[in-house]
Amino acid sequence: MKQVMRTFIALLGAFLGYYLGLQWLVLLPRFSLNLVGTQAILLVAGFTLLGFLVFFGLGPFLINGTIRMTSWMENGLAKIPAKDMAWGILGIIFGLIIAGLSAPALGKIPQVGNYLPAAVSLLLGYLGWAVAVRKRDDWASFFNFRGRDAHGERGQGAGPKVLDTSVIIDGRIVDLCRTGFLEGTLIVPSFVLDELRHIADSSDASRRNRGRRGLEVLDILQNELRFPLVVENRPVRASSEEVDAKLVALAKDLGAKLLTNDYNLSKVAQLQGVQVLNLHELANALKPVFLPGEQLQLQILREGKEPGQGVGFLDDGTMVVVEGGNRFLQTTVTVEVTSVLQTTAGRMIFARPLTSAVTSH
């Protein structure tokens, strides 16, 4: 195939040489040189042969350059989401329409009138693409239009969700997807994958295990559960090169929600108008509710911070502080809930022992 293309390029060079030879025959009389007959034929034939040889030699470079350029364009276009491309094309059309309407007036400007319409068309076409893509969600709201990938046919819960490193390493997202409570496409940015790879290659055993766990979670989601999972490679313009800043910027660009376990990232994203799904908040919301006066069985594991206190934990990890519980260390005791304290880190239950119901452990 490359040889055919090289031959075709060489023939184009021969045609160009033939044309230049004819032009030289027209120009030579101006310099008092007249070639006729055999001399004219030899001149044209020489130019034709020269064009063939030059373009035949340049053929491999032109072919390889064309292949690299087309590959670069294909890769760039493949990274652009279909929704962005559709809005971008509409923006280009709108920009070219404005340029076409202004072309007659621009053409009357002296000296630059012949070139200005083309330059304005290029500029407005680019601006149309850029504005349409960046403001696609605003335009969609204005025209009361929502694509399936923005909200889904089943409501807002089915929209795309950007995953951060913490929620991938945590692993509970696998169970959430398996139960069917999580819908929509999961988006893993390429820089999050890079961070996971660096953690998995760490010399520290604990970090290395966490990184490998995150990669296993993505493998389970994609290959075992067959959940819609997309690796996003688009360049992200963020205020800094930090991963958290890029996550927020990407979620805003895609109109997606941010799925995370990071409390600080959640607050920063919410301040910038990004919807956040925090698995820790979901886990706290699903914990059993205990009201003052309810009784429960609890093993007192250690002493509390205050004198006389004992501390135990429920099955879901909720801490229970028992007043006067230090007398029942390593013992399962029936306690009565006195109050419940909700904090940003979770929920804490305060209780007192019912001394009439104590069981040895």
State the main characteristics.
Rossmann fold, alpha/beta, 4 domains, five-stranded parallel sheet, single chain, six-stranded mixed sheet, 361 residues
What is shown here, in short?
The chain is of the alpha/beta class and 361 residues long. The chain has 12 helices and 11 strands.
User: Mind telling me the CATH superfamily name of the largest domain?
Assistant: 5'-nuclease
Distance between the termini: 81 Å
Task: Give Rg in angstroms.
Answer: 35 Å
CATH class designation of the largest domain:
Alpha Beta
Largest sheet: 6 strands, mixed
Q: How does this structure look, described?
A:
- With 361 residues, the chain is of the alpha/beta class.
- It is built from twelve helices and eleven strands.
- It folds into four domains: 2-78, no CATH class; 83-142, no CATH class; 156-285, 3-Layer(aba) Sandwich (Rossmann fold), CATH 3.40.50.1010; 288-359, OB fold (Dihydrolipoamide Acetyltransferase, E2P) (Beta Barrel), CATH 2.40.50.140.
- 53% of the residues lie in helices and 17% in strands.
- The chain starts with a helix and ends with a strand.
- Mean pLDDT is 83; it is low at 145-156.
